[in-house]
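About this split. The held-out portion is used to measure sequence recovery: a designer receives only the structure tokens and must propose an amino acid at every position. Recovery is the fraction of positions where the proposal matches the reference. Here is one held-out target exactly as it appears in the evaluation file.
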């Protein structure tokens, strides 16, 4: 009798799973029509080249920065975008913050938009580049240079879009602000200055767009086509330092465990016991959107997370990478320091881990989890240069719809989805004044191109430069 009951339960379970899987199919959103966009593509390419030629390298040590290069870039802007400077008000704020205001027809503006980018770049090791990093060489339809992708392309995309729209006689209904920072790569306060200005003037943006996701392929299981990923939140970040003191001594007669060995044990324990999974709102929205377009097996998993969530968690743990980073706080050990001599046991050893915090975690809760896993009260934990996860932006508003429409119109046939951004950006500061912050880098990028960001041989296809301008034109025409 018991066997029949078990069999009946299994059959019912299979029927439920199959029914949910078959019902988990793409939503019918109807046919959409988009108008073609025309603008001066050559001017946009030439403008980006001029920006790339400015060596706006930011550094945690200000003494290593060349402020003249930042001023050179700012000095070029009126010549590159003359219509913008004739029409828009520019406010220069401390810490290399630039804020343009394009006044709309409605006065006062009740629905202002903010479009963001940063114009500083990370350092380069020029000896490892195939082309000079700051010459903006164009060959075979590709521009080479630091900042072409991160993020002078969107800086140029915003200003070139406005330049062309103004030339065509367009004026937005509501104010549009262009908020730029020259210290994003070092977590500087430039973006904070812009946010403070908005707060002082009582301005609540209806939409904020900054760097983040992009149009990519092969990043979601079972989906082979293009996916436009728009971040509606970003993970927090914590640099966690592990310190362990000892009596030191000669390496010829060591204790059973040295400080380096004990720290290594803590490292292995954390790598073998990852943080628990959290299917947060951005991740669930992504699963619900892209999962419907996935292969049958993955559709079955995403349609029945109540049953297969553990299996998905196991897949994420085994594979690591981007999918795993979406569902949990990650830990990457990056630095270790011990003795200054090979035959001396260090009186103090340390190591550093970079944690990316899931929105369900916090700096303090992450520390508590680490303490519980390593189980060594002698190891001192301290964090620095850390930040909490951002707020989660809403999907039920015109701002989200504008971004989606602009992505779909620029990259036809692309699947647009919310997602959780695993990196950090300046846009996290805007959570103080808006819950409509969307993170999308207006580009379609191959895996190879993504790997050049912050790496060697950063470069961009000329067609990608044009797509960025088109995206922002589509955004602005909805404002």
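Reference sequence for scoring:
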């Amino acid at each position: 009798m018991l066997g029949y009951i078990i069999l009946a339960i299994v059959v019912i379970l299979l029927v439920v799973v199959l029914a949910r899987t078959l019902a988990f199919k793409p939503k019918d959103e109807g046919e959409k029509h988009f108008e073609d966009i025309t603008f001066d593509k050559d001017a946009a390419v030439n403008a980006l080249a001029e920006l790339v030629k400015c060596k706006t390298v930011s550094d945690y040590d200000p003494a290593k920065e060349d402020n003249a290069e930042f001023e050179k870039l700012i000095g070029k802007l009126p010549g590159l975008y003359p219509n913008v400077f004739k029409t828009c008000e520019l406010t220069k704020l401390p810490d290399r913050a630039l804020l343009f205001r394009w006044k709309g027809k409605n006065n006062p503006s009740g629905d202002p938009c903010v479009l963001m980018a940063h114009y500083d770049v990370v350092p380069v090791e020029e000896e490892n580049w195939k082309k000079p990093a700051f010459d903006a060489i164009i060959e075979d339809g590709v521009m080479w240079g630091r900042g072409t992708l991160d993020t002078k392309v969107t800086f140029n995309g915003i200003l070139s879009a406005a330049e062309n729209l103004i030339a065509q006689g367009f004026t937005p209904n509501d104010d549009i602000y262009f908020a730029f920072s020259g210290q994003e790569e070092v977590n500087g306060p430039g973006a904070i200055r812009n946010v403070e200005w908005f707060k002082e003037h009582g301005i609540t943006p209806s939409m904020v767009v900054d760097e983040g996701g992009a149009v990519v392929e092969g990043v979601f299981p079972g989906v082979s086509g293009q996916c436009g990923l728009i971040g509606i939140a970003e993970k927090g970040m914590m640099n966690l330092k592990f310190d362990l003191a000892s009596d030191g001594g000669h390496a010829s007669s060591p204790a059973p465990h040295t400080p380096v060995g004990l720290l290594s044990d803590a490292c292995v324990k954390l790598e073998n016991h990852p943080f628990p999974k959290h299917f947060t709102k951005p991740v669930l929205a992504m699963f619900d959107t892209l999962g419907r377009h996935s292969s049958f097996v993955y559709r079955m998993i995403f349609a029945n997370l109540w049953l297969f969530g553990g299996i998905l968690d196991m897949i994420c743990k085994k594979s690591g990478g981007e999918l795993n980073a979406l569902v949990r706080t990650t830990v990457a050990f990056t630095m270790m320091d011990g003795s200054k001599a090979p035959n001396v046991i260090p009186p103090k050893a340390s190591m550093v881990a970079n944690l990316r915090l899931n929105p369900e975690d916090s700096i303090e809760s992450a520390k508590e989890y680490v303490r519980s896993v390593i189980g060594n009260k002698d190891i001192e934990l301290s964090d620095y240069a850390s930040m909490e996860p951002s707020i989660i932006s809403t999907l039920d508003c015109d701002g989200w719809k504008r971004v989606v429409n602009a992505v779909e119109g620029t990259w036809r046939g692309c699947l647009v989805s919310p997602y959780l951004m695993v990196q950090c950006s300046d846009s996290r500061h805007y959570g103080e004044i808006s819950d409509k912050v969307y993170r999308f880098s207006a580009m379609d990028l191959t895996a190879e191109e993504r790997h050049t960001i912050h790496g060697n041989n950063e470069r961009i296809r000329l067609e990608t430069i044009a797509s960025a301008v088109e995206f922002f034109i589509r955004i602005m025409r909805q404002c």
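Annotator remark: The mean pLDDT is 95.
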